[in-house]
Structure formats: structure tokens, C-alpha cells
Amino acid sequence: xxNELFERAPVHKVYxxxxxxxxxxxxxxxxxxxxxxxxxxxxGNTDLxxxxxxxxxxxxxxxxxxxxxxxxxSSVISxxxxxxxxxxxxxxxxxxFYAAILCGIxxxxxxxxxxxxxLCLLGADEHTMIYASQYYTFIxxxxxxxxxxxxxxxxxxxxxxxxxSMTGTVLGAVVNMILDPIxxxxxxxxAAGAAIATVIGNICTDLYFVWVLLKKSRRxxxxxxxxxxxxxxxxxxxxxxxxxxxxxxxxxxxxALTNRFLLPYGNDRVAAMGIVMKVNMIAxxxxxxxxxxxxxxxxxxxxxxxxxxxxxxxxxxxxxxxSMAVILACILSLxxxxxxxxxxxxxxxxxxxxxxxxxxxxxMPFIAIVLVTTCTFxxxxxxxxxxxxxxxxxxxxxxxxxxASSRLAGYTGVICSQxxxxxxxxxxxxxxxxxxxxxxxxxxxxx
Length: 447
Fold this sequence. Notes:
- The protein is mainly alpha-helical.
- It is globular.
- Helix 3 runs parallel beside helix 7 and helix 3 packs antiparallel against helix 10.
- The chain is built from 19 helices and no strands.
- The relative contact order is 0.13.
- It has helices spanning 2-7, 11-41, 46-82, 86-113, 115-122, 129-141, 143-155, 162-186, 190-215, 231-262, 267-293, 295-303, 307-334, 336-343, 347-361, 364-380, 383-390, 392-435, 437-441.
């Protein structure tokens, strides 16, 4: 039945079966992020909002490190399942789970040891330091739970458990949303309360995933009995996992760079961009969900060398993703004033945030191209293609663009930088795809 789903079910049907639970989980996570931002913004303290925004890259770091073992492991395991090597896939799932735990413990130690210099590097000043430090400290303490939660959420989809993956994500987000108003407003813990709620939500997610792996899964495991792994297999996971991780690390870099370039213009602009980034996640997370929700399907058919079906899947993915990007960009641009006002009634924040948000949406169709191409490279084990796209959009290309545009156009150049970077990265994605996957599929009929 599982093989039927991967190998012969209609493309549109199986695509939505895999992608919709991921998208739903992303939307719930998005709602949690908005609730989090809403309760922080309701304090009316611009410095607190800016402080949490400055600490946001640390949260993104956790997602990035979880992707090493979640996306890296799922890419290799889905291809192994396509090759009917199920016991090998089970062994690798055990490694990914425990490696994520160890990674989280190391990250906690490093972040706490270097807390002050990291906060200064992120741009915290005398006004925002106390709030950024509170958020940073508790997020750092929760690193093991946050990193681990991202591993089984990805691995379970290789076995077709998209709904279980979604349920775990939703569970954590719901717990988080319940605790947010209690910790932030009722108890008055502010930035620290937001971080503590996030950590507790992730602990609940971890417990649920452990239960699924022990009671429901037949192809995956966390029981280390008889476990072994070779250096080559670790290398295969890292070859895909590290570029996947770099994507989120570059997101942290992109946020940090944007904040640093906005700081000379005032903390109100940093606060406005923090809210805009949350609203922008409406489109971004939906697109990410649809792009990466189909990753096990792409990896399985690539591993099985079923090029005809793979071509059908990719054609559907690109067409649907780009159409969705245009629709979402239009909706968010038109409703920008309403969406920003939901978070903060400050007229100055509204005045600053509307053009910021609309400029972010200008790059959405190009982000869609980058996401599907990156997902394809990761699923197919094309490490270099995945690497270059991972370090470009919010990393190398973005850094060059924001340095240049800020000098050429000042503040306007800063808020235009991401959209320009999106266009340039999409062009890079098309070129890289043409040099690798397209060559393998050339001449293969789609129907």
C-alpha cells in the first residue's frame, strides 16, 4: 500500500496527501508565531518587541540544526526506501534521532558560554539588551528539545506518516499558544515568557513523536539495539543535511543583517521589520510546506530511478508552487495595513511596515522557484546544487545586495534588498537545475 502511494497513485492526489499535512502544520506554527508576536506587541514596549526580534536568529538557528538530521536523514532514507533497502533506512533513522539530541546539548553549552558577545553581534544595545537576553537565554536552554523535534517530524514522512508529522507540530504549537498569554501577560514574564512557552511546546512535540516511533512506525526506530553506521552513511546525511541547515542559518544571517542595516534609522524600524517578518511568514511557510511536503515523494522516485514519474511530479510542483506564490503575494500586499495593525496599533509602525511588507511580497514568485529547486536537489542527493542555493538567497547574494543597495539608495535600498536577492537566486536556481536534474530527465516523456 505504501509503495502504491509512492509509485503509482495519481501525482496530484499523492502530492496533496504529502504536502497538505505539512502546510497545515506550517500554518498552525504560523498562527503560533503571530500569537507570540501579538502578545509581545500588546505590551506596547517597542524596545521589548525589538529585543525579541533581535533574538529571532537564535530561534532560527535551532531550526537550521534540526534540519541537518531531519531533512538530511529523510533525503537519504527516502532514497533507500525507493531502493527497497528498508533495514538500512531504519538504522539511519536511529542515528539521526540521537545525533540531534547530542547536537542540542552542545548548542546549549556554546550559546550560554558566549551569550554576551552573540547578543552584541546581533545588535542589542542598552535599550534592548535586557529583553534580547531574556529571550536568548531560555531559547538556548531549550535547544535540545527544539532541535530533536525537527528530526522525527521529517523522518516520519518518508514512511508516509504525514498526518502524524503534522499532529506533532500542531500539538506543540497549540500548547505554545495556550501558554503565551499566561507567561507573557498574566505572569508578566515578557520576552522570557515567550521563550519558555516555545520550549515547553517543543517538549510536548518530542514526547508525541517518541510515542509514534515506538508504537506506530515499522520502518523507522529510536531503539539502538544492534545499531551501527558507517562514516560513508554519515557523510551522505551531512552532505544534504548541512546545505539544508545552511538555508536556515542564512535566514538567521539575513535577519541579523537586515536588523543591523536598519538600526542606524532607529529601533522603530527594527520593530516594524520584526512584525513584517512575522506577517511575511504567512506566504513563506505555506510555500515551504508545499515545496518540502513532497520531498519524500521526489526522493523515493529518484532513488527508484522512475524518471517518468519524477518528471510528472516536478512539473506539477513548479506549476502549483509558482501559482500559489503569486496569489499569496497579492493577498498579503492588499491586506498589509490590516495585518500589521493586528499586531500593533502604533501609527508609526504601520507607516513603516506597509512598504516593507509589500516589498517582501515582490520576491515571492521567485522564492517559489528557489524552494522547489532546493527541495529537488536535497531529495535527489545533489549536495552542491543544494549548497549553492542554501548559501545564496539570504546569505552570499543577499549580503552583497544589501551592502550595495544601502549605499546606493539608503533606507529604501535596505528594504528592497530581499526582493532583489530573490530574483537573482531564482536565476541561479534555473541555471543549476539545467546543469543537473534537467539533463537526467531530458527526453523522458511526462505522460
